[in-house]
Design the sequence.
């Protein structure tokens, strides 16, 4: 998939690993890590120089050869310094491999993690030396094994001053190793051991790794051990650790304290300080890309070349400068192994891989993005409108807060070369809301509907899975399923019916006529499942979006008689009736926007006739103010506009004559909800002049006023504009209607010369 590098064939690598060579294989010929079949990548060092990818084999060889070929018998302490995860253990592995070529060298690997106390550490160390020597020199163990163990026992009760002097507290030696042993000096034991080492003709190389992972007390113990035992002839210590971490730990205990004191102590112990050669960025990049490729393969994701190019560009420009060690590359690989299968098909894979890189390499920035979506999803102009127009830019402020210690150049590089691709609205380019639909098709993180998925690794509650959308659309592509309502109810049960409508709107242009028609019929037949939202900022909500969706789906049907027939079918079967009227609103075109025309003029006329016919039929069963109180105004407006108000007025007055109290229900349909600014709670709004005019044009103002006076009596002689809070809604509306009616009547009776 990733075509920017070539690997050596696996068979060739295996053959070169088996063949005896005088020198390590060049780094260019090194094998790539074997990721196949692994769920996660183990943080294991390389086995030897054949796997060296950072050209550190010459460094390891030089150190090993220098130790093995030393002419002097004196001891030597070498420090291999490097940060965590930089490959110090791998260098020790290559040194071990090289030293094993020398017959007179015995390599001892000592792990301080195995010993929980200082006493056990000291005893265990010399026991480990005795065992290692015994394996290479069977006779040596009998003669020197007990001496080494006794030496360790005596050291376990010794203390070390900053100047390097060994001291015993009175009685400690006797209690720790016995009275007889306490009478034997350390120097005497040391002399006996060294004479045996002289006789053996061997040199011991003791490698101690992971010192920087010990806690502070354990770090003190391991350096005490080295200080007390490093003077043996024919021995060399190779200590691998992060010198900054260890110096800080030692500085708390020795000298004046602090980092410099720790450095001073290290200088007294480590004779040859060597810093690990830095890993070159190309090799680190290849390790990271090998991991990316393995994670994609495991998730069975095949990226097209443009997506690969986009990932490589953003990774190299924005993430690679922070990729400092091989361990970071492996951790990044494991992050992808985890995340890709969870969001496959539900997120943009390139965006997901880049976000996981930010999580691993810039964890503070990752949290800042997660917790401040508006800063990254909205433009500067939108944020200014929302009161976020601070100086400096909120984005730059967040970068400074979330990347402490990073130079300004690094923050600018992350912003301009990484974040700008993930969140285009953070740039100075103008991206209108139409881009949300374009980005939504690609499931990009910069769309609010997809943003949260990248942080919860799933489709949030109330959101809708793209996989569910594909399954839903696929069912209609195969033929309109008999269980259409059950399929829609499943979305309702998960509270994502609105998400379904939005997702179908984004994809409507991709549907073939058969699929579009099937989905359209299923939606209109079951429009009672479409949620009706309430709130001060809701303008139409899901019902409006569903009506727009129907017009989009109808557009996919070939124009002409086929589209007209399909539109008529939709108008006949749409339930409930108010939704049919909502669909008609979006199917009809405006004279100012002829490009939106879906049907010929006669086609629109036939739809209007169908709707009016349905309204009349519905009225015979029960008037709209009873069946559809929230939509009665629109129903009556549609009927009156396209048929005329005379017939409708007669029918309403006939109904009120049978039951005069229904006038209260009729008037109530004109009073909607308002929302208090302070509490945000809904309250009933008032009956206003425009409502009065609508009612007057339908059934007549005098007719309604007389009805109210007859039922409410003398209280309407002096009606109240707002009434008392304890009144019923019907009484309040009656007073408001009477109040407006009296003022209108007064205006009509006033002589023209007195009217302003």
Sequence:
């Amino acid at each position: 998939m990733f075509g920017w590098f070539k690997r050596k064939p696996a068979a060739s690598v295996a053959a070169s690993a088996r063949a005896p060579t005088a020198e390590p294989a060049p780094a260019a010929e090194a094998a790539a890590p074997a990721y196949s079949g692994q769920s996660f990548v183990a943080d294991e060092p390389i086995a030897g120089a054949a796997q060296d990818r950072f050209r550190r084999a010459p460094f390891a060889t030089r150190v090993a050869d220098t130790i093995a070929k030393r002419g002097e018998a004196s001891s030597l302490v070498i420090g291999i310094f490097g940060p965590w995860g930089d490959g110090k253990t791998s260098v020790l592995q290559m040194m071990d491999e090289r030293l094993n070529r020398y017959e007179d060298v015995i390599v001892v690997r000592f792990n301080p993690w195995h010993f929980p106390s200082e006493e056990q550490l000291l005893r265990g160390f010399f026991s480990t030396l005795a065992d290692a020597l015994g394996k290479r020199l069977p006779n040596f163990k009998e003669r020197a094994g007990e001496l080494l163990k006794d030496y360790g026992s005596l050291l376990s009760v010794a203390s070390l001053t900053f100047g390097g002097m060994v001291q015993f507290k009175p009685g400690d030696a006797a209690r720790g190793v016995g009275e007889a042993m306490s009478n034997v000096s350390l120097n005497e034991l040391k002399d006996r051991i060294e004479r045996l080492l002289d006789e053996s003709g061997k040199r011991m190389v003791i490698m101690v790794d992971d010192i920087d992972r010990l806690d502070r007390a354990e770090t003190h113990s391991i350096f005490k051990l080295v200080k007390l035992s490093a003077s043996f002839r024919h021995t060399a210590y190779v200590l691998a650790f992060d010198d900054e971490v260890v110096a800080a730990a030692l500085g708390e205990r020795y000298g004046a304290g602090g980092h410099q004191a720790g450095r001073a102590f290290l200088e007294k112990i480590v004779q040859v300080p060597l810093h690990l050669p830095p890993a070159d960025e190309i090799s680190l990049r290849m390790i990271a890309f090998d991991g990316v490729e393995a994670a994609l393969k495991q998730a069975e994701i095949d990226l097209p070349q443009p997506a690969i190019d986009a990932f490589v560009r953003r990774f190299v420009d924005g993430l690679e400068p922070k990729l400092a060690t091989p361990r970071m590359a492996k951790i990044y690989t494991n992050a992808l192994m985890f995340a890709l299968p969870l969001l496959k098909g539900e997120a943009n894979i390139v965006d997901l891989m880049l976000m996981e890189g930010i999580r691993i390499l810039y964890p503070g920035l990752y949290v800042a993005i997660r917790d401040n979506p508006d800063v990254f999803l909205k433009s500067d102009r939108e944020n200014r409108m929302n009161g976020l127009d601070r100086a400096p830019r909120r984005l730059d402020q967040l970068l400074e807060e979330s990347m402490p210690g990073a130079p300004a150049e690094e923050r600018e590089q992350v912003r301009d070369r990484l974040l700008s691709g993930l969140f285009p609205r953070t740039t100075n380019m103008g991206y209108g809301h139409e881009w949300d639909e374009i980005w939504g098709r690609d499931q990009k993180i910069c769309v609010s509907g997809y943003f949260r998925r990248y942080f919860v690794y799933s489709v949030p509650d109330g959101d809708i899975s793209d996989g569910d959308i594909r399954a839903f659309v696929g069912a209609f592509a195969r033929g309109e399923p008999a269980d259409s309502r059950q399929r829609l109810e499943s979305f309702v049960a998960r509270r994502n019916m609105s998400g379904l409508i939005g997702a179908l709107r984004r994809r409507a242009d991709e549907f073939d006529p058969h699929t579009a028609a099937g989905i359209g019929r299923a939606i209109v037949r079951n429009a009672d499942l479409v949620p009706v939202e309430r709130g001060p900022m809701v303008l139409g909500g899901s019902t409006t979006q569903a009506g727009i969706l129907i017009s989009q789906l109808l557009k996919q049907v070939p124009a002409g008689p086929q589209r007209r027939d399909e539109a008529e079918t939709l108008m006949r079967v749409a339930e409930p009736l108010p939704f049919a009227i909502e669909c008609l609103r979006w199917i009809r075109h405006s004279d100012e926007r002829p490009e939106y025309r879906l049907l010929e003029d006669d086609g629109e006329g036939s739809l209007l006739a169908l709707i009016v016919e349905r309204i009349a039929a519905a009225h015979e069963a029960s008037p709209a103010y009873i069946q559809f109180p929230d939509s009665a105004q629109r129903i009556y407006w549609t009927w009156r506009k396209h048929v005329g108000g005379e017939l409708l007025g007669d029918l309403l007055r006939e109904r009120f004559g049978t039951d005069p109290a229904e006038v209260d229900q009729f008037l109530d349909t004109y009073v909607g909800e308002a929302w208090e600014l302070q509490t945000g709670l809904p309250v009933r709004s008032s009956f206003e002049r425009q409502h009065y005019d609508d009612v007057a044009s339908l059934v007549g103002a005098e007719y309604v006023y007389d009805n109210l006076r007859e039922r409410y009596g003398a209280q309407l002689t002096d009606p109240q504009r707002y009434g008392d809070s304890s009144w019923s809604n019907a009484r309040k509306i009656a007073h408001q209607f009477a109040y407006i009616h009296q003022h209108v009547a007064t205006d009509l009776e006033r002589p023209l010369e007195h009217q302003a």
Summary: The mean pLDDT is 82.
